[in-house]
Design a protein that fits this description.
InterPro entries: DUF4374. By secondary structure, this protein is mostly beta strands. The chain has 1 helix and 31 strands. The protein has one domain: YVTN repeat-like/Quinoprotein amine dehydrogenase (Methylamine Dehydrogenase, Chain H), CATH 2.130.10. The relative contact order is 0.13.
């Protein structure tokens, strides 16, 4: 009788965990039955920051810690060709051109050495203003011209080779008689539906928004990208804002939440005469939940949402406008010291309560950099003197100052992982 050999996998794990939020490594050793020909793999996690350095030069770099010391782009990371936006795309980061020629570059950790590497580039024929990660293979970006009534584009991007797998042209919502056109502010895919939030703006001037007093979403079938319908809600204003990546977010139960700023500082002019707050589209539904509206402006004592990031367990971190007096003023990360007017608060979507975060200063605005990790959320705080990272304890709503940014500020805070042999 032939002797059968059974393969025995013995896993020996060595876990190095730095609770000051440093990079982690998990080592696995796989042995054959005789203890020979072992293969050691290392699971590496690294923090990745998109930083605006001196001279407005954007850099994407890795760092070992978020909580102390300095994060410096000097001699470190990938210099970008222009002013960029940084998006999380699963276990990849995509840098997208804003003032450059719509260049998309994918970055991930190498499975050879764990270092950050360029995974490929593509170019879109329109600027991109709303994105979402779909799955391990695909990423969606919504393109739009900055002026005129040209069709908008839904780009389906294949992350495996950084290529455009599909383009769908759409007009979303056009009102020629009023010179108003839809500008995308957010996108989400849930099941077999794709949702695009948008605001109506004058065709030649982004930010003139005379019809902003209702929330608006276009619903499409996915993956066919076939238009289904428009949905509106008059309890709050248009959803999201110009160039934010958090307008539509799904919770653990499959509910989709949106935020509305109703804010002059956040880009709407005139400021909508409706409250800033959260709406919900329940799981498996494609209409706004008529039984749910979280009036954030009322519950916070008058603040308005600038950006909100879902933290888990029904909680949102809100970067809130506390002085809504000047158009576009929440888009100044390097705002003059003493003129900061954005603060951090934690909003509970279930109890509809708001708690201010303590021990954190007011900040300038711009893009929202936030990383949620193990009961904490890490954010950028900046003004004309520079930027720093802060660690916020979600349960206690208290903050601790972390690493300083060498340069201006952090535009994105991420974590990537790789399995390295």
């Amino acid at each position: 009788m032939k002797k059968q050999f059974l393969t025995l996998l013995l896993l020996s794990f060595s876990l190095i965990s730095f609770y000051s939020c440093e990079e982690t490594k998990e080592v696995a050793t796989i042995l054959d039955p005789d203890g020979k020909d072992s293969v050691e793999t290392v699971e590496i996690n690294k923090f990745v920051l998109g930083i605006e350095a001196e001279g407005a030069q954007d850099v994407l770099l890795t760092t070992e810690t978020l909580t102390d010391g300095e994060v410096s782009p000097i001699g470190n990371g990938f210099e970008q060709p222009a002013w960029m936006s940084f998006f999380k795309a699963g276990n990849m980061i995509i840098a997208a051109g804003y003032t450059s020629d719509n260049i998309f570059t994918g970055y991930a950790l190498s499975d050879q050495n764990g270092e950050l590497e360029n995974k490929g580039q593509l170019i879109t024929d329109q600027g991109v203003y709303a994105t979402t990660n779909v799955d391990e293979n695909h990423f969606i970006a919504i393109g739009a011209p900055r002026a005129g009534f040209e069709e908008r584009t839904i780009f389906l991007i294949d992350k495996n080779d950084m290529s455009i797998a599909g383009r769908t042209k759409t007009r979303i919502d056009e009102r020629h008689a009023e010179d108003l056109v839809a500008f995308p502010s957010g996108v989400a895919v849930r099941g077999d539906k794709l949702f695009i939030s948008y605001f109506l703006t004058k065709s030649e001037k982004i930010g003139d928004t005379p019809k902003a007093e209702t929330a608006k979403i276009a619903v499409y079938d996915y993956p066919s990208m076939t238009f289904v319908k428009l949905i509106v809600d008059d309890r709050t204003s248009e959803i999201g804002r110009y160039t934010t990546d958090f307008s539509l977010q799904e919770d653990e139960n499959g509910n989709l939440y949106s935020f509305s700023t109703a804010s002059l500082a956040s880009g709407f002019n005139p400021a909508p005469n409706v409250p800033s707050g959260f709406l919900r589209i329940k799981k498996d539904e494609t209409d706004f939940d008529t039984d749910y509206f979280f009036n954030f402006q009322e519950k916070s004592g008058g603040a308005k949402i600038n950006t909100a990031v879902y933290l888990g367990n029904g909680k949102m971190l809100v970067r809130a406008v506390v002085a809504d007096q000047q158009h576009w003023s929440a888009y100044a990360p390097n705002i003059e010291e003493g003129y900061e007017h954005l603060s951090f608060m934690i909003a509970d979507l279930n109890t509809q309560t708001v708690v201010p975060v303590s021990n954190i200063p007011l900040t300038g605005g711009g893009e929202m950099a936030a990383l949620v990790k193990e009961g904490k959320v890490y954010v950028n705080v900046s003004n004309s003197k520079g930027g720093s990272l802060y660690e916020i304890d979600i349960e206690t709503a208290t903050a601790t100052k972390g690493a300083s940014i060498v340069g201006h500020y952090a535009k994105g805070i991420f974590e990537l992982s790789a399995t390295v042999e």
